[in-house]
Amino acid sequence: MREAPIAVFDSGVGGLSVLAEIQRLLPDESLLYFADCGHIPYGEKTPEFIRQRCSVMAAFFREQGAKALVLACNTATVAAVAELRRDFPDWPIVGMEPAVKPAAAATRSGVVGVLATTGTLQSAKFAALLDRFATDVRVITQPCPGLVELIESGDLHSAELRRMLKGYVDPLLANGCDTIILGCTHYPFLKPMLREMIPADISLIDTGAAVARQLQRLLAERDLLGAGPNRPVRFWTSADPQYFQNILPLLGQASGKVQRFAL
Q: How many folded domains does the chain comprise?
């Protein structure tokens, strides 16, 4: 089982930011990645629909022999991770959640901003995170409709993206936020642009590295850490494989072979 691959799933390309963190921390592991681009954005879908997609994806990855699963999507984690852990109790499953705890510890002004999808911000899980870790800080939430779609198109530099992002960030700065949570796996790809529009002393926090560390811990507990050599990442998408293949280099991945997932 040590040589078995790790599966990573997202509604689109955002999970590639998490995939990159896993590659950095666990270079001897082989990886599978599925982007459900045919149904993006998840933030506008019902929890029932998302759970159904996650169930289909989990069954597919089990058939591929994956030894662990990473839900590299905040919205999918909120909707489906509990059910997946119930249905697959023998499977290490790592989910995402906005980094409220480290942000609350990092802030000096006592004001934390959150950039996230509407679905994440409206979830009971996010509310519980605030109740648990943010009782002593003020949290300013900012839904960001449209950002995911632009990133999915490969747009990381346009004037339209800059205008949209500035409109979301300015209210956080105006409220005195000195720490900003990137509450969607797509948003780490915007760090270069964000750095151009915020003061240098403002912290940007995402959870990709923490997810990689949690995955490492779970694999080590089960004696499942790979010893290499790894195989090239295998990619699937529910949309156009050629389009996804073209976008991979723009988001820091080698342009590997992408297969169509039709279900």
A: 2
Is 144 designated active site?
Answer: no
Give the model confidence (pLDDT) of 86-125 as tens digits. Answer: 999 999 999 998 899 999 999 999 999 999 988 788 887 8
Do 92 and 218 fall within a single domain?
yes
Dihedral sign of CA atoms 58, 148, 253, 196 in order: negative
37, 54, 73, 144: which is the annotated catalytic residue?
Answer: 73
Residues 35, 105 within the same domain = no
Nearest-angstrom CA–CA distance, 131 and 154: 36
Active-site residue, from 37, 54, 177, 184: 184
Token pair belonging to 55:
């169930």
Q: What is the pTM of this model?
A: 0.91
For residue 72, what are its two tokens? 């590299």
Per-residue pLDDT of 136-190, as tens digits, reads: 999 999 999 999 999 999 999 999 999 999 999 999 999 999 999 999 999 999 9
User: Kind of pairing, strands 203-205 and 68-71?
Assistant: unpaired
CA distance 178 to 241: 40
Q: Which residue has the tokens 């990886």?
A: 31
* Among 193, 262, 244, CA closest to 14: 244
Are 261 and 62 a contacting pair, CB within 8 Å? Answer: no
80's tokens:
């489906």
Task: Tell me whether residue 1 is in a domain.
Answer: no
Tell me if residue 54 is catalytic.
no
Q: Are residues 218 and 240 in the same domain?
A: yes
